[in-house]
Specification:
Layout (H helix, E strand, L loop, with lengths): L1 H9 L3 E5 L5 E2 L4 E4 L5 E8 L5 E4 L10 E3 L5 E5 H4 L7 E5 L4 E10 L9
Antiparallel strand pairs: 1-9, 2-9, 3-8, 4-7, 4-9, 5-6, 5-8
């Protein structure tokens, strides 16, 4: 079972959260992920018809951000490959109008106390 293997590998149970803040990116800077030291993976997919730009602060722009292509363009980060960037806040800016996005994050759950209580 994959879930059991993931828990064994990470050392704690995990849980996926869909659209933890919003599923819309607008022409004003939009936060899509909060700072989260328990996040081990995230994915964002552009379901809209225009490009959006992604960055790790509110200064994201077409000249200062990663471009995510329309109609299924996606970006993902995993803590084992991308380190602190995976935990940090993420902001997006639409190049045109409101865009629907699909955001997914995988978080480590708090460890269960041993022996009950």
């Amino acid at each position: 079972m994959v879930y059991g293997e993931l828990e064994k590998d990470i050392g704690h149970p995990t849980a996926a959260v869909v659209n933890p803040i919003t599923n819309t990116v607008t022409t004003t800077v939009t936060q899509v992920f909060r700072n989260n030291p328990n996040r081990i993976f995230w994915l964002i997919t552009n379901l809209g018809a225009a490009v959006f730009y992604l960055g790790w602060d509110r200064a994201v722009s077409s000249a200062r951000g990663l471009q995510v292509q329309p109609n299924g363009g996606a970006l993902s980060l995993a803590w084992r490959e991308d380190y602190e960037l995976c935990f940090a806040e993420v902001f997006c800016l639409s190049s045109s109008g409101n865009l629907t996005v699909y955001c997914l994050e995988l978080n480590i759950l708090e460890a269960k106390p041993k022996g009950g209580a």
